[in-house]
Amino acid sequence: MGNRRFFDRPSGLTIADIAALTGTEASGAAMSHRITGVAPVDLAGPSDIAFIDANKFIDGLTKTRAGACLMPKRFVEHAPKGLIVLETEKPYRAFIAVHRKLFPQSLQPSSLFEADGISEGAIVHPTARLESDVTVDPGAVIGPRAEIGAGSIIAANAVIGPDVTIGRDCRIGAGCSITHTLMGDRVIIHPGSRIGQDGFGYTEDAEQQKIPQTGRVIIQNDVEIGASVTIDRGGIRDTVIGEASKIDNLCQIGHNCQIGRHCVVVALSGLSGSVTLEDYALLGGAVGLAPHLTVGKGARLAARSGVISDIPAGETWGGYPARPRLQWMRKEAALARLAGAGDKNRKHTKGSD
């Protein structure tokens, strides 16, 4: 059972292919040697390529059985005899390029039923419109007037609501539910995500009346959304996820949020209603943002930051409440010094008893 693999073993790349792909220099290499897999430097075998980019991996490098290894020039002297060395100052980026080339099918979900077309057991409303080459797995439900573009895959038990539009070459993971949504091309949504449900809104009085949420979710081209993400539809404006943005697993995007292009939102982060992330903003893991805030273009928030004010463009903030990076680090250093002084005082007091 341990030998079972979930991705097809590729025919491989020669060292010459890899050098051309990555722009690396192959030192004393057998250019026809074929690489068919990737592995960590300590586990790699003769048909695998590995990489090293830090001193802590030198011991693994000296003992490696890899067929080839990507590394900066400063590590070459530690390479064992016979190892094919590919020199580059950015070994991890080169390694990713090789990994992507060897295993392109890993880059997006496929049909879990390995089906083509509409499977038995899928339910497609007669008014839904599916272009050519759409795959619908068993148990999926596609509602009235929904539109799905060519080459898209709807995995098992996903539910696509009425009037939803899904573009071309999209991947909708198993168990997703998508309502009140317009989606562009090449969007990937991983299993279990919920998109388009109503947002959390009640009047602040004893009656706690529910506030109507009549907007939509707009997801632009090339967005990727992780597993078990929730994205609420807008209240009186649309919730928007901008082109090529990436949202990690287990994130919450509240109603009316505006996420710009090429933003990154890491796991467990939560955006309250009407938050704006401008283009290229980056949120570390478990960041929380209060309602109606703006994170400026290219700004970065450290993991577990609690944000209660706008973040200027291009700045890095962290902490709770979040503050500019240097101010946050000075505060942490001061607290550490105070804690150390307190420990010394307690030891001194005990010693004088």
Automatic annotation (TrEMBL):
One of its GO terms (molecular function) is UDP-3-O-[(3R)-3-hydroxyacyl]-glucosamine N-acyltransferase activity. Residues 33-98 form the UDP-3-O-[3-hydroxymyristoyl] glucosamine N-acyltransferase non-repeat region domain. Pathway: Bacterial outer membrane biogenesis; LPS lipid A biosynthesis. GO terms for cellular component: membrane. Pfam families: Hexapep, LpxD. Belongs to the transferase hexapeptide repeat family. LpxD subfamily. PANTHER family: UDP-3-O-ACYLGLUCOSAMINE N-ACYLTRANSFERASE, UDP-3-O-ACYLGLUCOSAMINE N-ACYLTRANSFERASE 1, MITOCHONDRIAL-RELATED. This is UDP-3-O-acylglucosamine N-acyltransferase. It comes from Bradyrhizobium erythrophlei. The lineage of its organism: Bacteria, Pseudomonadati, Pseudomonadota, Alphaproteobacteria, Hyphomicrobiales. The gene is lpxD.
